[in-house]
Amino acid sequence: MSTINYSKWDHIEISDDEDDTHPNIDTPSLFRWRHQARVERMEEQKKKKETFVNEKQSYQQKVAEMKKKLKEAEEKSASEEFAKLKIQLSELEKQEEDFKRKEEELKREERLTPLNIDTICKEGKSKTLINKSAPPPKELTEDEKIEKQQAFTKKYKSEIRKFGMLQKWDDSKSYLTEHNYLVCEETANYLVIWCIDLEVEEKHDLMKHVSHQCIVMQFILELAKSLKTDPRSCVGAFFSRIKLGEKQYSSAFNEELDAFRSRIQARAKARIEEAMKEYEEEERQKRLGPGGLDPVEVMESLPESLQKCFESQDIALLQQTVSEMPQEEAAYHIQRCIDSGLWVPGGAEDKSAEDKSAEGKQGEEAEAASAAPEEKAEKQEDKADGTAV
């Protein structure tokens, strides 16, 4: 059986211990002074620990940002910048030993601090449950990601847009603290798409405003990844750092914001070009002739002499021009004109047939009209005969 270590009870700091008081000293005042001194030491130790934790988090963030820049420089093949960043990263990593040493000192101080009435008093009964580590989240397919994004946007679109329109740091912090379910990748994705839409619509000033909020969200998510924690717990940490005005952190934020806006402008331009190409292709499909050729393209590819014939719509000149061309070349161009609809075979004959048909119809109508009075007269005669009978 394991033995219980009672050594921690050997040195207990008691502010109202009467064994070491002097008869000439005011005992209640001495007790109050001791208690106040102990509370101040505990508060000082607590602040010291909080300062260390904040410095360590700031250091870890700097290392993460430096590694990110180093990776980007390596991908861009910027050798000079890569070497410079590598030196800066090595200098930062040297500070890790200092943080380990300070952490050991803090632990040692806590271990050697005597127990007192404030640290001894604890709840009478406690229970600790150790849960099994949660399995890593399942990797979603592209369709599942799209479906998840659409469902999230449909549910929280108005809240996301309201966050995108905020201006002050404090307002953004309060809003995300109150609506912490918005601190996620889906919100960042929607803000990116919204920025592209605004740039396409040429609402440049509004795009710049929303892009600022988008980078705020992305920085919070990146901070959570570097600390391996829930993004919702990093809202306060991000705004505390950005409001302190730390030059390196603020510079990194502004640089990323400028780069993001440039990417948005490039993507909007590409989207407009794609839309124009789709429109032109639709118009081209509408123009295609019976053989699947574009009359505009065929017209531009014809020899200048043939182009003049089609522009003037002079059939006689077209026949003459074709007869003067080599047979194979003429056949090639005429066939392409037929496939594109520029030339309709038998068009003149069909028109003549239509004209003849129209003339025949008019003749029949005239003949019927001339016959109508005769029939009318015969009917009148019959009527007269009948009356006479």
UniProtKB/TrEMBL annotation:
Organism: Elysia marginata
Name of the protein in question: Hsp90 chaperone protein kinase-targeting subunit
Keyword Chaperone appears in the UniProt entry: yes
Pfam families the record matches: CDC37_C (PF08564), CDC37_M (PF08565), CDC37_N (PF03234)
Bias type Basic and acidic residues, positions: 348-364, 373-389
GO CC, alphabetical: cytoplasm
Swiss-Prot/TrEMBL GO biological process terms: protein folding; protein stabilization
Domain Cdc37 C-terminal residues, every copy: 287-380
High-level lineage: Eukaryota, Metazoa, Spiralia, Lophotrochozoa, Mollusca
Record PANTHER family: CDC37-RELATED, HSP90 CO-CHAPERONE CDC37
Major place of residence: cytoplasm
Family statement: Belongs to the CDC37 family.
Domain spans labelled Cdc37 Hsp90 binding: 126-283
Assigned keywords, A-Z: Chaperone, Coiled coil, Cytoplasm
Localization in the cell: Cytoplasm
One Gene Ontology molecular-function label: protein kinase binding
Region (Disordered): 343-389
Coiled-coil residue windows: 42-112
Residues covered by the Cdc37 N-terminal domain: 3-128
Secretion signal, residue range per the UniProt entry: none
